[in-house]
Specification:
Elements (H helix, E strand, L loop, with lengths): L1 E11 L2 E12 L3 E5 L6 H8 L7 E7 L10 H4 E4 L11 H11 L6 H10 L15 H13 L5 E5 L7 H17 L1 E5 L11 E4 L5
Parallel strand pairs: 3-7, 3-8, 5-6, 6-7
Antiparallel strand pairs: 1-2, 1-4
Helix pairs in contact: 3-5, 4-5
Amino acid sequence: MRIEAEGLTKTFNRRVIFRDVSFALGIHQVLRVVGRNGSGKSTLVKIVAHTLSPTRGSVAFRTESSGAAGESPQRLIGLVSPYLQMYDEFSAYENLELGSRIRGLRPVNERMETLLSMVGLFARRHDAVRTYSSGMKQRLKYAFALVHTPPVLILDEPMANLDAEGMDIVRRIMEEQRREGILIVATNDLNDLDSFDFQIDLNATH
């Protein structure tokens, strides 16, 4: 598995958000994206996750079996960010079932239960998400992002709304992702991730 980004540039209303961002990542590698508020961190990770198009440049996901075209990024990526919302009227368990189905996979009960236990939500798995605190909803986003065992995990402000216990859970998730796949972390807080292979500072790309 490999991600190759070349010459990524994004403009809004003639304002350059960032320009000519390039990187290449393989298995067991970690990219940290930093920059001041408004520098384009969230915009960049949306482009990498294929939820937003760049003004110029490209992002390719390459696997040994499929080459550059291959499998849909939706099946390869798990994304956690403050702007993503869970379905409040559904339970945590139902959200994970839906997450599996929209990726074209059959929900696996054991996998969903393991993830909900990992993020500390197993006891509340059948409660409507609207009854959750902001920290519980953030934990659920991690279970949702991991339900399909993605080789690429992208985290935007990974510690948002989390208490100390939740932060410890996220650190364990990041360590596991480094061992098993590719990790991209965009953050304002350099303490969120202090071990990485590459860094992009968007303050320097304008």
